Amino acid sequence: MIATSYPFLEVFWTILIFFAFFIWIWLLFTVFADIFRNHDASGWVKVAWIVFIVILPYLGVFVYLIAEHKGMTERSMKTQKEAETQTEQYVRSVAGKTDPTEQIAKAKRLLDSGTITQSEFDQIKQKALAAT
Q: In the 8-state DSSP scheme, what is residue 131?
C-alpha cells in the first residue's frame, strides 16, 4: 500500500519543500533580472554580484535583497510605468480619433431615433466639443 508507506506528514513536507524551491527559483530570477536591469552599476559590479550569488547562493541573494531593496523597487516601478505608457500610446494609436462633428451627428441620429435622451445628447455633445 502506497498510503501506508508515505504518511500525510511526509506528503505535507514534500509539498512544503516543493513550494520553497519554487519561491527560491523565483527569487533567483528576480535578482538576476534586477542585476541586469540596473544601469547605474558597472559591469564589474554586476559580475561581482553574480559570482557572489553563484558561490554562496542563499547568502548572496539575501544580501542583494537587503542591499538593493530600494533600487529594486525603483527600477521595478520605472519598468512598470514605461509599460503602462507604451500600452496607453498603443491604445490611443489603435483607437484613432473621431471627428467631433461625426460624434455629434451620430448622437443626433440616436436622439432622433429615441435611443438617447436630450440630456444624454447634450453630454455627448459637450464631450465631443471638449476633446477638440
A: T
Q: What is the DSSP letter of 38?
A: -
Return phi, psi of residue 4, to 5°: -80, -25
Determine contact, residues 53/60, Cβ cutoff 8 Å: yes
Q: How does residue 19 score in pLDDT terms, banded at 50, 70 and 90?
A: very high
Give the CA distances from residue 34 to residues 27, 75, 109, in Å, rounded to whole numbers and listed in that order: 10, 8, 55
Question: Which position has the grid cell 507604451?
Answer: 86
Query: Both ends of the chain: CA-CA distance in Å?
Result: 76
Q: Distance (Å, rounded) from C-alpha 20 to C-alpha 128? A: 55
Collapsed DSSP state (helix, strand, coil) of residue 7: coil
3-class SS of residue 113: helix
C-alpha cell at 132: 477638440
Q: Global pTM?
A: 0.59
The amino acid occupying position 80 is Q
Q: What is the mean pLDDT of residues 117-127?
A: 90
Cα pseudo-dihedral 35, 49, 47, 28, rounded to 10: -50
Q: Nearest CA to 129 among 110, 106, 109, 101?
A: 101
